Amino acid sequence: LMDRMQAAGVPPAVIHLPTLLWSAIASGRVPMAELRQAVRRNKARLPAYLAFVEALSRGRHRDMAVSLLAALPTPAAVEAVDRIAQAAEERGEAEHVLWAAEALHRLELAPERAMALAATAAAIQGNRRAAADYLAQAIALGPDQPGIYARAARIHLALGDPGQLKAAAAKAVMLGSADAFAAAVVAIGLLEQGQKREARKIFAVQRYGDSLGASLAHIAQAAIVAADEEFDDAARVMELATQELPDIPSWLRSET
Length: 256
What we know:
This protein has 16 helices and no strands. By secondary structure, it is mainly alpha-helical. The longest helix is centred in the N-terminal third of the chain and has 18 residues.
């Protein structure tokens, strides 16, 4: 097949990486040195490579998916696992989130994130004790990482602990997190304390997040606008919030 494609004028570099991947699947062995070199030379194909890894992680080739992640530079591997975990979290798939945690552990990368993902998986399953234990370990391993506290805020929401939720969100924002959910929790808390100006400052920084974060951020912004008695504008922002509600992960929807 490679000979025929090359004869047709297809550059060898274009077909080299896909061929390596399917060879690994067929043989059950990953040619790691060659694969790393191919990944490095084909950066434009990295999104497709990551999509392939995610597809493997959802089926019977989960171990192979971890091996393919090992061919990536460390930052790219950690980001890839985070994306897979986030997609699984949004679907409420605890087992797949746990796979992501185990992948980081096997790759010996970001142990604090691995523990935070394990906490998320436990929270999805409704295992409060395990979620709290894993989360405590994650914070101990990464006490200054804003992403850990942003994830902790979501976990405390699922566990129905508003005090810990607010504390984790405040810590995430203080450490510089751009997470929309954590920012919204902090902004709403400031509004409740009558600190409208400080609440508005929270959204002076660009915030990012999934449907949960976007929805709560819109609600917080609507409340800020309503505090200025601009009720028509507040209603328009609230409409944006309601558009996000159907996509909130099921394991967080009731608490939200």
